[in-house]
Amino acid sequence: MAQTQPARPRMVVDSQVHLWNAETDQFKFDPAFKPQLPEPFTAEKLVPMMEEAGVDRAIIISPLWPTDRNAYVLDAVKRYSLA
């Protein structure tokens, strides 16, 4: 008879989350694109939402409107990374 393994809790991963901070004089958004929300969506907003929804991890994607700058996303990953 085959032995069964104990059930492991499932890890929930959100596979695409866009994070961005506010536009400033030094950091302009690409005018061809509009953010998904009228206000910035920061890591500080995301983390409590993940906890409430039972999401364990998220894959962070830099959105198009901050052009080729991903400094905010990299900073958020450094601040909240578990690895």
Write structural notes for this entry.
The protein has 83 residues and is an alpha+beta fold. The longest helix has 11 residues, at 43-53. Strand 1 (13-18), helix 1 (43-53) and strand 2 (57-61) form a beta-alpha-beta unit. Helices cover 25% and strands 13% of the residues. It contains 2 helices and 2 strands.
Question: How is this structure best summarized?
Answer:
The protein is of the alpha+beta class and 83 residues long. It has helices spanning 43-53, 71-80, and strands at 13-18, 57-61.
Properties at a glance:
2 strands, alpha+beta, 2 helices, two-stranded parallel ribbon, 83 residues
What order do the SSEs take from the amino end to the carboxyl end, as H and E? EHEH
Q: Whole-Å distance between the termini?
A: 39 Å
- Biggest sheet strand order reads 1-2
Helicity, as a percent range: 25-40%
Largest beta-sheet details: 2 strands, parallel
Tally of separate helices: 2
**Count of discrete domains:** 1
Strand content: 5-15%
Topology:
Blueprint: E1 13-18, H1 43-53, E2 57-61, H2 71-80
Parallel strand pairs: 1-2
